[in-house]
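for the writeup, i need someone to sanity check this before i put it in the appendix. the sequnce is what the collaborator sent (i think, or maybe the updated version? ugh). structure was predicted straight from it, no edits. if anything looks off just tell me and ill rerun, i have time this weekend
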Amino acid sequence: MFESLGSVGALTGSPGVIYALVAASVLLDVFLPVLPSGVLVITAATAAAAGTAAGKVPGDVPDLLLLTLVAATASVLGDLVAYRLAWRGGARLDRAIARSRRLTTAQERLGSALARGGGPLVVVARFAPAGRSVVSFVAGAAHRRIREFLPWSALAGLAWAAYSVALGYYGAQWLGTTWLATGVSVLALFAAGAGAAYVMRRQPA
């Protein structure tokens, strides 16, 4: 069962490679939001549950806590890279943002939220499709102070990683170690993303 479900583990052959794939995917999806980093985290967590159910020794399956920390750390590092690139983007990036009504509105909302010391918008945006990218680039382009942005980025990354891992693990616990469990968990992640996008749209300008 583990081999059929946990195709990531079967293809890579070790949890270490799974961690590396998760880290790379999460790190890069701030630039390429089409990367299925959330799906990969859920699949790895589901595979861990399958391996545990099959009696695999701990070293042969991904550790859930370590998987969460890897995904959260990669999320924060990706945010910081995008933030610094946008910070140094200069007038060209400012003009690009000014041409986009969506980015201009996001810049105004995010700047106001961070200035008030209330960055829940950063956390919510982490779950929305491309929301992480918008927040990271806008925060950098607006030259928001790192101490205003980084704590919320860390909280957002940890919340997203913990939620994704929990979906994969508990989906397998409740629905069995099948691809159906993975599919339901992925749908739950997408539902959270749709809800986050709705909340961001409803934020007053």
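Confidence is low (pLDDT under 50) at residues 1-12. DSSP finds eleven helices and no strands in the chain.
thx in advance!!
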